[in-house]
Design a protein that fits this description.
Blueprint: H1 8-21, E1 26-32, E2 37-43, E3 47-54, E4 58-62, H2 73-82, E5 86-91, E6 98-104, E7 109-115, E8 122-126, E9 131-134, E10 138-139, E11 144-145, H3 165-172, H4 178-185, H5 190-199, H6 215-232, E12 237-242, E13 245-250, H7 255-260, E14 264-268, H8 272-332, H9 334-350, H10 356-359, E15 363-367, E16 372-377, E17 380-385, H11 390-439, E18 450-453, E19 459-462, H12 466-476, E20 482-486, E21 494-497, H13 505-517, H14 520-523, E22 528-535, E23 539-540, E24 555-556, E25 561-566, E26 569-578, E27 582-590, H15 592-598, E28 599-610, H16 612-627, H17 635-641, E29 646-653, H18 655-669
Antiparallel strand pairs: 1-2, 2-3, 3-4, 5-6, 6-7, 7-8, 8-9, 10-11, 12-13, 12-14, 15-16, 16-17, 18-19, 19-21, 20-21, 20-22, 22-25, 23-24, 26-27, 26-28, 28-29
């Protein structure tokens, strides 16, 4: 990836275009996502909107919702002070990569500064710019980020567009050549420096010393920078692919890469739609490194435990062998051992413990409290109990040897388990890249509803509750669409979005699965339901005179057509190769024939008594087993699509996995 953070041109374009669209949006929540903060906004013009802020790197809207969201100290602070407030204004106060969000609450006004510069800060201030909180606190050479201090931005130059040609020339002299002069003196990244030179017709002079060019050339370069910024203000984005690898996202059409480097340039409708997949790729790299580091540390910990266990096993074995060897020696010299014990006991009774060492040969030490003495047997110290006779001492030694051998065996089993864990982690380590890559994906507007895409390509959505039913009928139901609902109170308002086409009966049957399976009928364990369907123009939110329609209720006029639907739902994992976001996986549902066709693996559910996480984990285990590949979906995603208490009656590999296997075998053969 060429770009590590948004540049000044990106930010000017972003705040002038996107920034205006999020003004007056309400802040619903704030999350910490490991290396950036996610603001969940609710906007009148676009509904739920995700804003990602990362000091030192970026600020943009996203359709990629992270799999794991949490809360850190700054997210907690922001939740307490700005949740429910509105974004009043987005601006860039200086010619510097700093975006300021003005937040209006009922009783106060706050600012959030996102510094998109190296080691930048996320700073919260009051309306007088007094620092209230920050992502970190630090004393720098030219400012101090500390609660109670006035917020001061880092030193910055005036706008390059407002500087004289002489001043621009002086700044260029900071570099050894023309490109580095633009980078160091003008503070622009290398790819923008080269873009300016290409547009100014000076690319062949990029390696020359800055003092070799004329004032006219300086003026030409300044105009081309202005041209670049004006082009960026159109709000479009561009993705640069080199050898099919996404390498850059820009706010202007990069002539440098299309003409000089012969790269593939893809134009996007908005800058956010270019930045989102670009930084999603970066997110994958960060998560991959974080997970790899966690696994590496865990492997290191387990290896140390394994090595310690091996040492312990060896000690157990050595002690056991010693006891067995000594017990054999004592047994072979049984009369002498008996004589020694007799000597010890006679000395203890007649002379006391202190005289035992003097009276009896080979005694190393005595322990009166425990009634034991240590004697040397073939040069090795051995503890014997004087309260036991010779044979019982021998048996006690052999018993201890057996116990030590048992401990060694058990420790060996534990060591083997540790080795298995290490191997499992090593395998997971090799699969991280695939799993993380396929786990980060765009989340489209319709995914907050029950949804499927029919075999003819029609989008079907169904409400998850009365509020969503209301939204679907009011906002998304067009006169030419198809509306479906189960003949039972409590079910999703279901719509086939036709977009000018006419769905066949097959698509209507497929859509009816949502209307039936996500209704109250599933929770009641009903085997089949009647589902009616009508044209969208037959559905109204206007009640008859004198009547009232509650939230999520509606009137249906005219003739209804009916379908009998068995309450049987397939749930599978679909893998999509998206031209923008790359390969990712998601959960799909529908009738079995539809899910089987598109999935790597799937299960078939019917109403039952298993529910919640237990059910989701069982489904996940079945999908992993059948898919025979790395799955990146989570149990939470599965739970979100389960219609209610269920029973798994079938688990199979999908056609997509079989075709993938055939293709891989074909490539291997070739």
């Amino acid at each position: 990836m060429i770009k590590k953070s948004m540049d000044i041109v990106d930010l000017i374009s972003w705040y002038k275009n996107t920034g205006k669209t999020i003004e007056n949006c309400r802040i619903e929540n704030i999350y910490w996502c490991g290396h950036y903060w996610l603001f969940k906004l609710r906007c009148l013009n676009r509904g739920k909107t995700l804003l990602k802020l990362e000091p030192g790197r970026r600020i943009h809207l996203s359709v990629v919702e992270p799999g794991e969201k949490g809360i850190d100290r700054i997210a907690a602070y922001l939740r307490k002070h700005i949740r429910g407030c509105r974004v009043n204004e987005v601006d860039m106060p200086w010619w510097e990569r700093i975006v300021r969000l003005s937040i209006d609450c009922r009783d106060k006004k706050l600012y959030i500064y996102n510094e998109i510069i190296p080691r930048g800060f996320l700073v919260v201030t009051d309306e007088d710019n007094t620092i209230l909180y920050a992502n970190r606190f630090e004393k720098l050479r030219d400012r101090e980020i500390k609660i109670g201090n006035t917020y001061v931005p880092p030193p910055h130059r005036p706008s390059l567009l407002e500087m004289s040609n002489n001043d621009l020339y002086k700044l260029l002299l900071k570099g050894k050549d023309l490109v580095r002069g633009i980078v160091k003196g003008w503070g622009l990244p290398g790819y923008i420096a080269e873009e300016i030179l290409v547009r100014a017709g000076l690319y062949d002079k990029k390696s020359e010393k800055p003092d070799m060019i004329s004032i006219n050339d300086i003026e030409n370069m300044r105009r081309k920078l202005e041209e670049l910024i004006n082009e960026a203000l159109n709000g479009k984005g561009y993705l640069v692919y080199i050898d099919d690898s996404l390498e850059l996202a820009t706010a202007y059409k990069p002539i440098l890469y299309s003409e000089i480097y012969d790269a593939n340039i893809q134009e996007m409708p908005t800058l956010d739609e270019a930045l989102d997949p670009y930084f999603s790729q970066y997110e994958k790299e960060v998560i991959e490194k974080q997970e790899e580091s966690k696994i590496k540390n865990e492997i290191s910990r387990l290896k140390k435990s394994y090595e310690k266990l091996i040492e312990t096993i060896e000690k157990y074995r050595e002690k056991a062998e010693k006891l067995e060897r000594i017990s054999d020696v004592l047994q072979a010299n049984y009369p002498l051992f008996e004589k020694l014990l007799q000597c010890i006991n006679d000395a203890r009774e007649n002379l006391g413990w202190r005289k035992i060492r003097k009276k009896c040969p080979g005694i190393v030490s005595v322990n009166p409290r425990e009634g034991k003495v240590v004697v040397k047997v073939q040069g090795e110290p051995v503890e014997i109990d004087i309260r036991l006779d010779a044979w019982k001492n021998i048996l006690e030694m052999r018993k201890k040897a057996g116990e030590l051998k048992g401990k060694a065996r058990r420790a060996k089993i534990e060591a083997e388990k540790l080795l298995e864990k290490i191997k499992e982690l090593e395998t997971r380590r090799t699969r991280i890249e695939t799993r993380v890559s396929k786990g980060i994906r765009p989340k489209y507007w319709y995914e907050k509803y029950h949804w499927l895409i029919t075999s003819e390509g029609f989008l079907v959505i169904g409400g998850r509750d009365a509020g969503q039913n209301e939204t679907i009928v009011r906002k998304y139901l067009s006169p030419e669409d198809i509306f479906l609902h189960a003949e039972i109170h409590g079910g999703p308002a279901t719509v086939i979005k036709t977009n000018g086409r006419t769905p066949s009966y097959k698509s209507i049957e497929e859509a009816a699965v949502i209307a039936a399976c996500y209704s109250r009928g599933w929770r009641e364990g009903i085997g089949a339901l009647e589902v009616f369907w009508v044209k969208g123009e037959q559905v109204s939110k206007t009640p008859p005179s004198g009547e009232y329609l509650g939230k999520g209720a509606f009137m249906v006029y005219g003739k209804k057509q009916f379908i009998t639907v068995e309450l049987r739902l397939a749930l599978g994992v679909e893998e999509i190769d998206d031209p923008i976001y790359g390969v990712y996986q998601r959960i799909i549902i529908g009738p079995e024939h539809l899910v089987e066709q598109r999935s790597l693996a799937y299960v078939v559910l019917i109403p039952g008594d298993m529910r919640g996480k237990e059910l989701a984990e069982k489904i996940m285990a079945s999908l992993r087993k059948k898919a025979e590949t790395t799955l990146s979906v989570t149990t939470d995603e599965i739970m979100y699509r389960i219609p209610g208490p269920s029973r798994i009656i079938k688990a199979e590999q999908g056609r997509a996995a079989r075709e993938k296997k055939v293709n891989n075998e074909s490539i291997t053969t070739e």
